[in-house]
Write a structure and sequence with these properties.
heterodimer, A: 427 residues, alpha/beta, Aspartate Aminotransferase, domain 1, Aspartate Aminotransferase, domain 2, seven-stranded mixed beta sheet, four-stranded antiparallel beta sheet, 14 helices, 16% strand, B: 158 residues, alpha+beta, Sufe protein. Chain: A, four-stranded mixed beta sheet, 5 helices, 4 strands, 19% strand, globular, disordered C terminus, binds pyridoxal-5'-phosphate
């Protein structure tokens, strides 16, 4: 028996349907919800995306029909569960252009993936004085693990600065990345500002110094085509829950020779070849990094999410997001009192619009919007260095995905006008 | 409950009035104690300066930036404690915290305006905004100076 996801949009040869937003929206049951009597307008996709019925059904199907532990049994259910789990690994490998599914390590998410690299690669290969280069627009999950390693090992952490428009200072990057640089660890897209980082310019700078490159793909893999081989990187970290998949599952992709050079992350079952009372030997990659019973069901759910996105086509996803972001930049720009942060060209920004409403604190903006059914994010977005650079305590942030419409942007804009009026800042 | 009444419940007119025109917002010449408070999750910050003579609070001021609820609640707090004994101020702090838990009037003298904040109790995410100024005052009166936060679990996922 061969098991494949039933929604099976996994074939690139399938003739692609035109981008039909109404059909897409019907796949997401939560979009029919109302919030205190008004329709939900979900604009917090950079935090987490909603889930289509195809993913929800796949989770249910696994638990109803195939649930068993993986890699451990000869019985039928265990064989089926293993086949589904490994099948998800293969789908994800294909989705990001990895040549070998064994290069896909399942983690809890981006945060765990980056910590895995800091722990298993960093502790093995970095010495005092070695430099890790990140940027000022990183999510805390790509700052804190390196600060911890710095404090433990005496490595040096350097930051590519942000320019006032939210883009990175490439001039400084050129002088920052040097012979002591051992790793460039950089986001592909800022979750706080939406800035798309010009990886094709930064990666060669690191490569020219013999450094490895880790890309934080938490905001890029869900929203645009990402090909690890074309990029020429060494690690890619991303989270399932931001790309239609379940929470609690994410991915670290690494180049096989690099993964093989690393020590395990955690010790336990499934990651060993042989254990005696004195010592153990490690299993091969990826098992070496997947100690204990993995998150089987959610990995399979993520496989279904990848099928869904592949059927839409990542280029179509990106095209839709440029369209909606471009509309939002213009529409919100017209709302009195709104200041938008970050690059103003939708080609240079993902589907994220961070802004401030004059005289109304972001937290109050979020509260008023909630009464209109509009869900946005307010706060520092786990990017406090960005807030410090902009000299704001927090921002309000709307972020879009495949199912958002221009009508929803209009709802956001009028809710903002209502917020201004409510706080009496503008008559 | 309709959208309008839900909002009106949270943002009562007296609260908006304190937000737009904060009271006791000028720094003191010679404070006897002070403390800083912050709520990193939403970026609220307040600094409270107090002048105590004998056991009486003869002067108080606050500065900072943050959401309407944190700033208005702090403004109301300064009006409440000014001229009272430190002992009474501490009773007020306890009564306020109690009110945020029970959503009921503590029935103490001088709390009429402050009771406009009862609606906040229904919005768990905002209780820490409302409490910030009060906790910071507590810290200042304890003579510990330093910094407090109403958000020990400073977690946020983006
Ligand atoms: C750019 C970026 N990096 C890392 C993360 C961390 O992801 P997670 O919380 O799923 O581990 C996020 C989102 O939270 C993000 O937006």
């Amino acid at each position: 028996m061969t098991l494949t996801a039933q929604n099976s949009g996994n074939s690139a040869s399938n003739a692609r349907l035109p981008y039909d937003i109404n059909r897409i929206r019907r796949d997401f049951p939560i979009l029919k919800r109302d919030i205190g009597g008004v329709p939900l307008v979900y604009l917090d996709n950079a935090a987490t995306s909603q889930k289509p019925v195809q993913v929800i059904a796949e989770l249910t199907r696994f638990y109803r029909d195939h649930n068993a532990n993986v890699h451990r049994g000869v019985h039928t259910l265990s064989v089926e569960a293993t086949e589904l789990y490994e099948g998800a690994r293969s789908k994800i490998a294909a989705f990001i252009g990895a040549s070998d599914p064994h290069e896909i390590i399942f983690t809890r998410g981006t945060t765990e993936s980056i910590n895995l690299v800091a722990h298993s690669w960093g502790r093995k290969h970095l010495q005092a004085g070695d430099e890790v280069v990140v940027s000022e627009i990183e999510h805390h999950s790509n700052i804190v693990p390196w600060q911890m390693l710095r404090d433990e090992r005496g490595i040096v952490l350097k930051y590519i600065p942000m320019l006032p428009d939210g883009t990175l200072d490439l001039q400084v990057a050129r002088s920052l990345i040097g012979p002591k640089t051992k790793l460039l660890s950089i986001t592909a897209m800022s979750n706080a500002l939406g800035t798309i980082v010009p990886l094709q310019e930064l990666i060669p700078l690191a490569k020219a110094q013999g450094a490895l490159v880790l890309v934080d793909g938490a905001q890029s893999v869900p929203h645009m085509a990402v090909d690890v081989q074309a990029l020429g990187i060494d690690f890619l970290a991303f989270s399932g829950h931001k790309m239609l998949g379940p929470t609690g599952i994410g991915v670290l992709w690494g180049r096989m020779p690099v993964l093989e050079s690393m020590d395990p992350f955690m010790g336990g079952g499934d990651m060993i070849l042989n254990v005696t009372m004195e010592q153990s030997t490690w299993a091969d990659v990826p098992a070496k990094f997947e100690a204990g019973t993995p998150n089987i069901a959610d990995a399979i759910g993520l496989g279904a999410a990848v099928d869904y996105l592949s059927a839409l086509g990542m280029d179509e996803v990106r095209r839709h997001e440029i369209e909606i972001t471009d509309y939002a930049l213009r529409r919100l720009g017209d709302v009195p009192g709104v200041t938008i942060f970050g690059p103003m060209d939708a080609q240079q920004r993902g589907g994220v619009v961070s802004f401030e409403l004059e005289g109304v604190h972001p937290h109050d903006v979020g509260q008023v919007l909630d009464t209109k059914g509009v869900a946005i994010r307010t706060g520092h977005h786990c990017a406090q260095p960005v807030m410090a650079a902009l000299d704001v305590p927090a921002t309000a942030r709307a972020s879009f995905y495949i199912y958002n419409t221009t009508a929803e942007v209009d709802a956001l804009a009028s809710a903002l006008e209502a917020a201004s009026a409510f706080f009496g800042v503008r008559a | 409950m309709t959208t309008g009444s839900l909002l009106d419940d949270l943002y009562r007119e007296i609260l908006l009035d304190h937000y737009r025109q904060p009271r006791n917002h000028n720094p003191l010449d010679a404070p006897t104690c002070s403390a800083d408070g912050s709520n990193p999750l939403c970026g609220d910050q307040v600094r409270i300066e107090v002048s105590v003579a004998g056991d009486r609070i003869v002067g108080i001021s606050f500065s900072g930036r943050g959401c309407s609820i944190s700033q208005a609640s702090t403004s109301m707090m300064t009006e409440y404690v000014k001229g009272r004994s430190a002992e009474d101020a501490r009773k007020g702090i306890d009564a306020f915290q109690q009110m945020m838990v029970t959503a009921e009037s503590p029935g103490i003298e001088g709390f009429d305006d402050i009771e406009a904040l009862i609606g906040v109790a229904k919005f768990p995410a905002r209780v820490k905004c409302a409490s910030l100024g009060w906790k910071t005052l507590e810290q200042a009166l304890a003579g510990e100076g330093g910094a407090v936060t109403t958000d020990e679990r400073s977690v946020e996922h983006a």
